[in-house]
Amino acid sequence: MNLGFLASHNGSNMQAVIDACRSGRLAASPVVVISNNVDSGALERARNERIPCFHLSGRTHPDPEDLDREIVDVLLEHDVNLVILAGYMKKIGPVTLATFPGHIINIHPGLLPEYGGQGMYGRRVHEAVLAAGAGTTGATVHVVDAIYDNGPILAQKKVRVKKSDTAGSLAKRVLEIEHELYVDTIGRIARGEIKLP
Ligand code: GRF
Fold it and tell me: For a tag on the chain, would you pick the N or C end, based on fewer CB atoms within 10 A?
C-alpha cells in the first residue's frame, strides 16, 4: 500500500504512521506528503524522512479546481492508493474524492458522530466535550466524503474524561491514542481486515 498524506500543521499522526512503516509494523510505504501550509511541521518531517513533499494551496493555485487537480496529479504520480488526512484543515475537492473513492481516511479527535462537522476541530472539540460534561471522549477514524466528518466510521478508541481535565490535557491524552488508533486502523486496512467502501 502506498500512502499519500495531506497535513496542515504539526503532523504527529503522520509521523506515527511513517514510524510504523519504517519499523515494519505496517506493510505500507509513505510515498508523498502534501501540505497547504508552507511552514508546517508536516513538511519538515517529510523532508527529514526524505519523503517527496509539496506545498499546494490557494497561494500556489488560486483557482480551487486547479488546486484539486494538482493534488490528484501529485498523488497519482506517486502511485498513492490510500490517502491519509493527518490534521488537514481544508476540504477535499470533488476531483480528489472521485479519483480515490472510499480510499481517503481521516482521524478526528472526538467520538463521531458527536462533536464533529464544520468548525468542530482541534481544541474546540475538547472544549465542547468538557462543556457537555461528557464522561468519555476519544478518537475516530473514518472514510472521507464531501461532508466534514461524515463518512463511514472505521474505528474508534475511547478516553475517559477526568474531573480535573482541561481542553489542553484532554487534547494531549486524545492525541496519544490517535497515534495508536491510526496506525492500528491502517494496519487492519492493509491486511484486508477492514474493507474500504
Ligand atoms: C489531530 O488531533 C487530528 O485528530 C486532527 O488534527 C490533529 C492533528 O494533529 N484531525 P497532528 O498534526 O497529527 O499532530
Answer: C
